[in-house]
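yo

u said u wanted the structure for the complex thing, so here. seqs first:
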Amino acid sequence: MKAAIMGYGVVGSGVGKILRENADIIAAKLEEPIEIKYVLDLRDFPGDALEDKLTKNFEDILNDDEVKLVCEAMGGTKPAYDFTKRLLEAGKHVVSSNKELVATYGFELLNAAKKANVNYLFEASVGGGVPILRPLWQCLAGNHIKKVYGILNGTTNFILTKMYNEDMPFEQALALAQELGYAEKDPSADIAGADVCRKTCILASISYGKHIDPAQVQTQGIEDIQIRDVAYAKANGYEIKLLGYCEKLESGKIDAIVSPFFVPKENQIATVSDVFNGIVVVGDMVDEVFFYGRGAGSLPTASACVGDMIDCAMHADKRKNFGWGARDKDFVENHSACQSRYYVRGTGDINAVKKALGEVAFLSLQGAPLDEVVFLTEAAQESELDARLAAIENFQIEAKIRVLT
Amino acid sequence: MKAAIMGYGVVGSGVGKILRENADIIAAKLEEPIEIKYVLDLRDFPGDALEDKLTKNFEDILNDDEVKLVCEAMGGTKPAYDFTKRLLEAGKHVVSSNKELVATYGFELLNAAKKANVNYLFEASVGGGVPILRPLWQCLAGNHIKKVYGILNGTTNFILTKMYNEDMPFEQALALAQELGYAEKDPSADIAGADVCRKTCILASISYGKHIDPAQVQTQGIEDIQIRDVAYAKANGYEIKLLGYCEKLESGKIDAIVSPFFVPKENQIATVSDVFNGIVVVGDMVDEVFFYGRGAGSLPTASACVGDMIDCAMHADKRKNFGWGARDKDFVENHSACQSRYYVRGTGDINAVKKALGEVAFLSLQGAPLDEVVFLTEAAQESELDARLAAIENFQIEAKIRVLT
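structre next:
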């Protein structure tokens, strides 16, 4: 089958490499090998193995009827949305690693694929090389998904691991991540949680059947995490992790958030360190399942793209029934109305806290100042909790972090 | 779509329950619901929700052209092999949780499915509710699988966890597992590794493309693990786990074995305790991925069966290209020729060991007798290592356990 790669950066070049180096194993599964006819990129790649396939003109791919399969690894929504839509409408299968595109326009593109009876697959868009979307959609299809949450960004997890294991302040850990090539020069999309938000939207859309937009998901990054809070986590049996989190509420709405969480050590998610990703799915029948591996990097991400390409090539005339419904602006519950436990660190009078909150679990840390009051709350609506915290006399909140339960 | 369940025990009744209780979510994915028309079992189930579907006659299912989909949860090969083959030949999709059947006759049954252009799927046969076969076959299709290994039996892992965490002797831990319903009255298939062997064969057949028979895989259970060796593992940063293990060798053959292993604490497999299952796949492109969850139990296992049933119903006229090649009696390397590190505990003279083996890592344990000599060997062929160990003067081997590297 003739194919094209759009975007020849980290992921796209990895796809080229896998198709070349593992041609034997791919050929063994297919009647016809996958052959790259075009590589779309505005840059030149002198000496590259696919140099003679390079084009700067998208129309070459769109108008070539021989090309039945395209891997989109451009990133961003412009021009990826327009390109992808036109390819699908032209009856070509498209696979993608582009989480921003899927999180923003997944519903529209899946619909275009359905109309044209072709596949639009994007296993690489969440968890990089970790198989998660296909297992979630197919293997767990008989379950109501109660919760799905995970560590979806390797850069921030690397930083948090350094803060946790080596008491390294945030700025120093970020600088180290940049030095090692794990973080961009402008690290804001990772650090502030936008990347995790997109992946969370994709997980939620698959799990709950309606398109969830990044704008619907309250998103907080890791910039405000203090070494002091890391120390309390360590001393009391918790990790601190940046999670994308969604849960189906009894109301039928969903609680979706990107935020740092206190994670109990016993949870499998607590075992995910450095640049690795890990995702927990809780189904009503299967209970808890956990997926772990490399969430980024050229070859792991390309491995997921190539898996999708092989699936398309193997079943070229057989569209997979895969997709979700339209947006529903009221589907995500206002976060202040969601229930959770919280870790709270503040300064003030412990007796005032006891009087106001009653049953809370106080945390201790050797050598802490006498007026530092730190505790885990019972589960409560955030708005209600905030009101109760604000009403405590002589108590100044320094940090408030959600607790995974 | 009209369907049947064959075998209404732990798994089969779970399938009935999920189809009933989660009919809403299943209907949302399918144009037509999955409706159970027959349940095949020799027993009666008075008062059961599917009581009026019960039949003792297989021919009722085989000869009913309305039935397009059958879940086989009978276990064993007789009559499951004959029944499954005839159903596939009659053009019905079959899903199965039956690891013994797949490990023994998978090649023949997949071929029968191919000829009839129907699906034979068995996600539930390995790892129970844990999605592993579909991710391995589809998501990782672009990888050469370097290794695949895992904790594939909850009963033995529960026993080992008790031995490890509570210093409980094997017999006592087994009795507890029986009391809690985790182990059968006759626990031999679990304890001696036969159950793990079947699952290992299925993983190896998918990963390496040729049918691997249980008879080809050297299998050792957990009966001979001593608390003394558990103590050495704990004191030196290891867990002891019963693993199904396969690795592609440079020769093109595979190293496949079921055996207890010393597992380094840093490996994700070491985090799998109690009755849980966990599987690591190492691909040449994706590196290491890990899957974790409930490997047994009515609803988790049935969750996997129902996922397969939905896949069949969703793509009823679209057979998945899934299968593997015929047996090759020379494909599995003789175990004595495979390389590995070993943990060795013996009695004798440490200097004689040093003289014979040179570079080995000696392990210590507080209060150990002076003549107890314990070490981890370098990687070596087992036959060569055995010869060298046997040649050490005044050294009596008490235990030898493979080390996961």
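The CA atoms of residues 272 and 351 of chain B lie 37 Å apart. The first strand of chain B starts at residue 2 and ends at 6.
cya
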